[in-house]
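Team,

Forwarding the record for the chain on the shared tracking sheet. I've put the sequence and predicted structure together so nobody has to dig through attachments.
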Amino acid sequence: MTAYYNENDPYAAQWLRNLIATGHIAAGDVDERSIVDVRPADLEGYKQCHFFAGIVGWSLALRMAGWPDDRPVWTGSCPCQPFSQAGKRKGFADERHLWPVWFSLIRECRPAVILGEQVEAAIGWGWIDLVFADLEAESYACASTVLPACGVGAPHIRQRLWFVADAERDGGRPDEPRRTAPGRAAAGRSPWREVEWLVCTDGKARPVEPGLEPLAHGVPARVAKLRALGNAIVPQCAAEFIRAAIDSLAEPEQR
């Protein structure tokens, strides 16, 4: 077992186990406790640790980018609700602002590389400034960018903030990662072709995964499925960021 997955939603946690069983993501253990209850000793022996794992787009993205399952890395997508337009927008006063808890584990365990993601709106709250200030105080070099899901052919914008932190440098910010062209839809094929549209209560129509029906009485696990999908990252977008970030990281044999 090379990977540790931390996800406190039971439905998403079982989804993770199913993906592990089918070999779609790195073999590992799923911990359903809140990250608040996780201690550094619990993470000993794992090459990769995925926090706020959801349905674990990070492990899939790492594989897509050519990052081996046994190459050390920590990933995390802290809860977006404190900063998202869809949340209560309490910012740092929200109890779901869990970066300080994750950072406490980072400070104790000193992972070599950290990859993270957050909603773009968090920038305006100063979230990434706090993250980088904490990490740079521990001698991590940090870099970030904003990438949309439509940049890899998805039929929606879904702007997300992506960041990388490297412990192998001597502090300060690394050279900006090489910019790579985002993935494109197959030539001559529109990424919108197979999209289904859901008319929401605000009168706007939004694209959804084909076959995904709105809430309905008697449909099992519909709410849980929608919540899991809504919290997920776009692995193809993460993979593009990882490929670019790899260029700025120390060579594997130096770790």
